[in-house]
């Protein structure tokens, strides 16, 4: 029986590119990240949700018994109130939602992709118009965010260039401008650190303003700033919704400017962090490839055929490894010795057969062809392994 080395042919179209591999690995990591976040937030918030449900049922039952109103009628009234909230009806009187300033605040939350959810169009025409209005407005705003990030990078590059200019002489600067132009570009880590400091500064300033104007605590104000600046927009806290504010016009302008600046800085920070994440993916893939190559090399080393050298009293024949036509050795074993060799040879004694009855000869193609016919007939139960 002749054993030949299998050739593995891989179709190039089935091998994913680096970007495709990044896409798959990042999708898997995001899914795992979401599962971990779901487990953590479920363990934190689920007990509070159950407690709130129990408290609400108790209050509803007590109110029904006290005022002699059926729970079904009371729930029916509350259902209508939930529908009225979409139109801006609140238990406490607040500011108008659809006057000019309120509508401007609404479209600001739309084009900035915040979407608090406390204001939404109730007419069919308004809903259809919002689809096309948001499509163009969100696209333009994202372009503005990208241009803002480019301006930040340009500013940081100029700042680095000016700092180097103050340290170097004019002649040295002219000589190094053409060759060292890449050195003026800041690294992604410097950009991330600067943008994080900018976001933190804007968030702290805005939180101080919201804490004073909205009556929130400073921690609640910081929470609102992150939700708004990251364009998540839960809607549990919404600024500029009280009926009366001191210096309402100044506060509305400051609120819009802080929202715009905060969203721009946070969006730029997300872009910088995404570059770092991609670098981490590259490092992860390189590490996995290095581990795979190591395992593959180790497996090939284990599967490498063992070279057995036996000395015959009459003649010892060895095949040259550099001979391209006769690289592979032909090892002849008796049929009984072939099975006993791999069954009884210990790994610590590689190449040493423990079977005394087996007759083993190592010959090459040329020597085997020159053997006489009588010598060939004397070989019984020969298996040629190539």
Which runs of at least 5 residues are low in confidence (pLDDT < 50)? 1-10, 307-386
Biggest sheet statistics: 3 strands, antiparallel
* Total DSSP helices: 11
Mean pLDDT: 75
Helix and strand sequence:
HHHHHHHHEHEHHE
Rg calc: 38 Å
Strand order of the largest sheet: 2-1-3
* Amount of helix: 55-70%
Q: Which shape, going by the Cα principal axes? A: extended
Determine the N-to-C terminus distance.
9 Å
Q: Describe it for me?
A:
- It is a single chain.
- The chain has 386 residues and is mainly alpha-helical.
- 63% of the residues lie in helices and 3% in strands.
- It has eleven helices and three strands; from the N terminus they run ααααααααβαβααβ.
- It has a three-stranded antiparallel β-sheet with strand order 2-1-3.
- α4 crosses α8.
- It is extended, with a radius of gyration of 38 Å.
- It starts with 17 loop residues before the first helix and ends with a strand.
Give a brief outline of the structure.
Helices cover 63% and strands 3% of the residues.
Descriptive terms for the model:
mainly alpha; single chain; three-stranded antiparallel β-sheet
SSE diagram, text form:
Layout: H1 18-67, H2 71-86, H3 100-111, H4 124-167, H5 170-177, H6 188-214, H7 218-229, H8 248-303, E1 330-334, H9 335-344, E2 361-363, H10 365-369, H11 373-377, E3 382-385
Antiparallel strand pairs: 1-2, 1-3
Helix pairs in contact: 4-8, 6-7, 6-8
């Amino acid at each position: 029986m002749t054993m030949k080395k299998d050739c593995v042919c891989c179709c190039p179209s089935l091998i994913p590119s680096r970007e495709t591999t990044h896409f798959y690995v990042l999708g898997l990591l995001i899914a795992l990240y979401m599962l971990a976040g779901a487990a953590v937030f479920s363990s934190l918030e689920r007990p509070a949700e159950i407690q709130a449900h129990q408290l609400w049922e108790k209050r509803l039952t007590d109110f029904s018994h006290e005022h002699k109103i059926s729970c079904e009628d009371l729930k029916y009234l509350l259902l209508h109130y939930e529908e009225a909230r979409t139109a801006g009806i609140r238990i406490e009187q607040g500011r108008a939602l659809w006057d000019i300033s309120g509508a401007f605040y609404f479209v600001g939350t739309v084009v900035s992709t915040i979407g608090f959810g406390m204001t939404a169009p109730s007419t069919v025409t308004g809903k259809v118009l919002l689809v096309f209005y948001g499509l163009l407005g969100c696209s333009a705003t994202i372009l503005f965010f990208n241009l803002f990030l480019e301006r930040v990078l340009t500013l940081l590059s100029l700042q680095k260039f000016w700092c180097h200019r103050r340290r170097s002489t004019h002649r040295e600067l002219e000589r190094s401008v053409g060759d060292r132009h890449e050195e003026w570009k800041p690294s992604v880590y410097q950009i991330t650190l600067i943008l994080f400091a900018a976001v933190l500064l804007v968030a702290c300033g805005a939180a101080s303003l919201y804490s004073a104007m909205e009556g929130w605590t400073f921690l609640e104000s910081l929470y609102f700033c992150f939700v708004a600046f990251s364009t998540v927009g839960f809607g549990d806290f919404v600024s500029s919704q009280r009926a009366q504010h001191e210096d309402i016009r100044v506060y509305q302008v400051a609120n819009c400017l802080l929202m715009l600046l905060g969203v721009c800085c946070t969006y730029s920070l997300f872009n910088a962090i995404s570059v770092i994440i991609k670098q981490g993916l590259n490092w992860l893939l390189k590490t996995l490839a290095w581990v795979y190559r190591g395992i593959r090399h180790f497996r090939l080393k284990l599967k490498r055929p063992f070279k057995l050298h036996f000395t015959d009293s009459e003649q010892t024949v060895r095949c040259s490894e550099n001979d391209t036509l006769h690289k592979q050795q032909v090892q002849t074993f008796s049929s009984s010795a072939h099975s006993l060799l791999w069954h009884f040879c210990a790994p610590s004694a590689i190449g040493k057969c423990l079977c005394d009855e087996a007759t083993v000869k190592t010959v090459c193609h040329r020597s085997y062809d020159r053997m006489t016919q009588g010598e060939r007939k004397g070989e019984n139960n020969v298996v040629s392994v190539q």
